[in-house]
Request: fold
Amino acid sequence: MFSSFRFIFTAACAVALHQVHAQDSTAGQTVYMQVCFACHQPTGLGLPNMFPPLAGSDWVAAAKPDRLIRIVLHGITGPIQLNGQPFNSPAPIMPTQGTLSDEQIANVLTYVRTNFGNKAGAVTAAEVKAIREAEKARTAMWTQAELEKIPVN
Ligand code: HEC
Reply:
């Protein structure tokens, strides 16, 4: 009796968790298709020598989302390396997307980290909020050298 209750409870939790995840990913897709797709493309593959891919990117796959959140909040500029290779872009600039809410950023990063073949963990609005607060004095875009000082493991 007890163990069957526990089974039903566990199953119900699994369904609930799945729904939360599915909802975040759908909300994230909406943000992606409003904001990010113009550059990174609906496929997440970017455009060669123009916009870097999010599919298979080591930036996206990082264990912790601390650099990704910063990229979306303040943008990134200057040459970057992607999976150990220089990514060449005539205008290496991603402008800030910091007008998005904590929840929108969490959802879009969850979408990016779990789609396009990526299999990284979800991002929460609380994580975005904490980093927005920690970086509230910042106005400049990030550079790769600065972001590399932020641990992601
Ligand atoms: C106006 C074009 C533009 C928009 C809009 C844009 N990006 Fe970018 N993004 C870029 C460019 C260009 C770079 C590379 C910048 C550099 O070389 O310094 C980049 C870099 C990145 C990177 C690091 C490199 C990689 O490919 O993994 C991530 C992650 C990223 N963008 C995610 C996003 C997300 C998520 C959104 C939407 C919230 C977004 N970007 C919106 C142009 C854009």
Residues 13 and 19 are 10 Å apart (CA to CA). The radius of gyration is 17 Å. Residues 13-17 have pLDDT under 50 and may be disordered.
